[in-house]
Amino acid sequence: MDHQEAMRRAKKLVAQMTVEEKASQLRYDAPAIERLGIPAYNWWNEALHGVARAGTATVFPQAIALAAMFDADLVRGIADVISTEGRAKYNAASAAGDRDIYKGLTFWSPNINIFRDPRWGRGQETYGEDPYLTARTGCAFVRGVQGEKDAKYLKAAACAKHLAVHSGPESERHRFDIDVSEKDLRETYLYAFEKIVKEAGVEAVMGAYNRFRGEPCCANSHLMEILREEWGFEGHFVSDCWAISDFHNNHMVTSTAPESAALALKAGCDVNCGVTYLHVLAALQEGRVTEEDITRACERLMATRFRLGLFADDCPYDAIPFTENDTDGHASLALRAAEKCMVLLKNDGTLPLDPAKVRTLAVIGPNANSIPVLEGNYNGTSSRYVTFLEGIRAACEERGIRVLYAQGSHLWNDKEDNLALPGARLAEAVATARAADAVVLCVGLDATMEGEEGDASNAWASGDRPDLELPACQRRLVEAVMAAGTPVVTVNASGSAVAVTEGNAILQAWYPGQAGGNALANILFGKVSPSGKLPVTFYRSVDDLPDFHNYDMEGRTYRYFAGDALYPFGYGLTYTHFAYGQPEFDGGDAFVTVRNAGEREAEAVVEAYVRAENCPFAPRNPVLCGYERVLLKPGESKRVRVAVNPDAFTAVNEAGERVSAGDRFTLWLGGSQPDARTEALSGERAAVLSIHR
Predict the structure, then answer these.
(1) Residue 457 has pLDDT above 90, yes or no
(2) C-alpha span between 382 and 51 (Å, rounded)
(3) Does some domain include residue 380?
(4) Which of 218, 227, 563, 617 has the greatest number of C-beta atoms within 10 Å?
């Protein structure tokens, strides 16, 4: 049902409640109202890349890895599976009377904040640094989660978070005040939110911890006005967890909990993840809120529950059985996603590995046999984990290849055993490398080293990273293994940019989900050609970046970076070469003929970039405006249509207004962005076309 019908029903139901009952429903752990037949409901559930924190579920690649696929259709399919598993688990749990946390149908995903700085630990939860890629991926995720097969009910409710201008530092998020220009606000920080609200119809929006221009984001008048009045958002608004208590404990914009509850409620925050709304009735008694304020929030929340079919007996999703969780089909999709997300950064011909030449393979590194490196954060629990070592070993057994394994180092500590000397595992790693024909060196991070403040057992900086380097113990391991003289394939697992340069081949594996080991093995041995693309810029050093606290976009991300990237946004090699014909532009679509000029079947990711040639407030560099995947056999050609984002022919001026960007544009179509660094790394040049509009 649409919002209007759901709201009509909600108003009728809420009119029967006492003010105490209405106030009780504004908590994330809303209690039952038995006299009205309303069961308890817990609004807090997570589904960033699979149903999280609720037992067994399919674990897909982390969000940043989903963005690296440059495949909105596949993201939508993954999100559809996530909501199917969520319904399967909800149906079984609620039938047993279990209405605990992480058991509901309101998923607090996706995270569509812009990954503006690689030091931010939660950047792994996002879809990268580009507003258009984030918007397109986020819209696909929302549509998949909320369902498109039933016109009456939502399959689950998605939530776009965190509104807005939020991307670290994690250690200061509870007290940090941010201000940016209207141009940066509209062009970068709000773009994906607007698209997800207006085009995908997201049911919920979550506020951020920080303040924006002096006001906490969970009670920010400017952001709420944009959301509700300008964009026409009709769903419900939820606070980040315990963010409202920050009003009086950290931001110091209020003095008491009732004041904080009143500030958030009157601004339009409907449900509190936390305990501050326990003081809503005190705020009512003090005259800080009215009963109408409480009623309005309760009505919005009940409207969502009506849209989910939670008070209905004709919701088709109620029939999804528990056995639709963790299926073989869902596992196959997780493998497919893991294969598509990995990005080949360097290859001197070592990959794919040749079984005729590699008869003994060394697998070395602290991430080689790690389950946490598959998971990322905000994850579920898989029944089918395949570590990198396990996947490689299985592939080698099929080919009669012997596998040698050495951990080599701790993930971040100088030593693995407290009684041992620092570097005690290095000798074993070197001996293993020397005994092999090739080495797969598995390094990087995991979610204990980058993530959310308070959620990550981080050895560095409250979830954030101080630099872009591997931990010192791993740098020593890389140096020792490289010195052994055996060809090395470096596999870096991380949710953010790491300045890895050593290795005959380098593969960015992200946090690839439950099937990461099998996906890696399939790529290493050429069963699958890598096709992922970087959704973030890999910088050489933090010296290339503005101060972490600076939210201005100048000098940040590929759109405004003036330096020489280590690995550019949109970049990724494959096991073949693609040739691009002369592009055409007609009716808002770009067309180009792509030919597989190599000897291996592979998917090309055709990327379109545009630059306004006579607009003073357009981004410094060409910007992504479309992409499309196409599978090509050796020698095969296909004419590919790429739908071009119409916003690419506009620009945001200093007043925050989106206006025409002029009449002269340059359009590029190719396998990456049209920059000199990418051309030098890939040996491919994008096709170019001048457009007059």
Answers:
(1) no
(2) 10
(3) yes
(4) 218
pLDDT bucket at 50, cuts 50 / 70 / 90? very high
Residue 439: domain span? 328-560
Q: What are the catalytic residues? A: 240, 450
Predicted confidence at residue 458, as pLDDT, reads: 57
β-pairing, 159-163 with 211-212? unpaired
Report pLDDT for 416: 85
Are β-strands 41-42 and 204-207 bridged in parallel, bridged antiparallel, or unpaired?
A: unpaired
Same-domain check for residues 553 and 591: no
Are 183 and 137 within 8 A, CB to CB? Answer: no
The helix (H) or strand (E) run that includes residue 4 is helix 3-14
Co-location of 538 and 582 in the same domain = no
Q: Residue 176: CB partners within 8 Å, gap ≥ 6?
A: 169, 209, 210, 211, 549
| Last-in-domain residue among 531, 560, 589 | 560
Q: Which helix (H) or strand (E) holds 24?
A: helix 19-24
DSSP 646: G
Is there a domain that residue 456 lies in? yes
The single residue listed with the structure tokens 């097969």 is 149
Buried b (16+ CB within 10 A) or exposed e, 407-420: bbbbbbeeebeeee
Whether residue 490 sits in one domain with residue 350: yes
> What's the angle, vertex CA 641, arms to CA 638 and CA 647, rounded to 5?
155
The enclosing H or E element of 15 equals none
> Percentages helix, strand, coil for the chain, rounded to the nearest 5?
35, 20, 45
In whole angstroms, give the CA distance from residue 684 to residue 693.
28
- When divided into structural domains, the chain yields a total of 2
CA distance 271 to 205: 11
pLDDT greater than 70 at residue 455: no
Residues 600 and 548 in one domain: no
Q: Do both 396 and 530 map to the same domain?
A: yes
Burial 540-566 (b: 16+ CB within 10 A, else e): eebebbbebeebbbeebbbbbbeeebb
The angle that helices 131-146 and 191-198 make with each other, rounded to 10 degrees, is: 30
> Are 619 and 502 part of one and the same domain?
no
> Is residue 457 domain-resident?
yes
**Domain-embedded: residue 505:** yes
Helices (H), 349-421: 372-375, 388-399
CATH of the domain at 444: 3.40.50.1700
| Residue where one domain finishes, among candidates 506, 528, 560 | 560
* Helix/strand/coil for 26: coil
For helices 72-95 and 131-146, what crossing angle results, to 10°?
Answer: 40
Q: Note whether 407 and 534 are same-domain residues.
A: yes
503 with 389, same domain: the answer is yes
Q: What are the tens digits of pLDDT across the range 527-572? A: 999 999 999 999 999 999 999 999 999 999 999 999 999 999 999 9
pLDDT digits (tens, 9 = 90+) for 622-656: 999 999 999 999 999 999 999 999 999 999 999 99
- Name the amino acid, one letter, at 641: R
| CATH code, 659 | 2.60.40.10
Question: What is the chain's alpha carbon radius of gyration, rounded to the nearest angstrom?
Answer: 25
Residue owning tokens 């007059």: 692
What pLDDT band is residue 148 in, cutting at 50, 70 and 90?
A: confident
- For residue 252, give both structure tokens: 């110091």
Q: How far is CA 590 from CA 587, 606, 640, 690, in A?
A: 8, 11, 8, 12
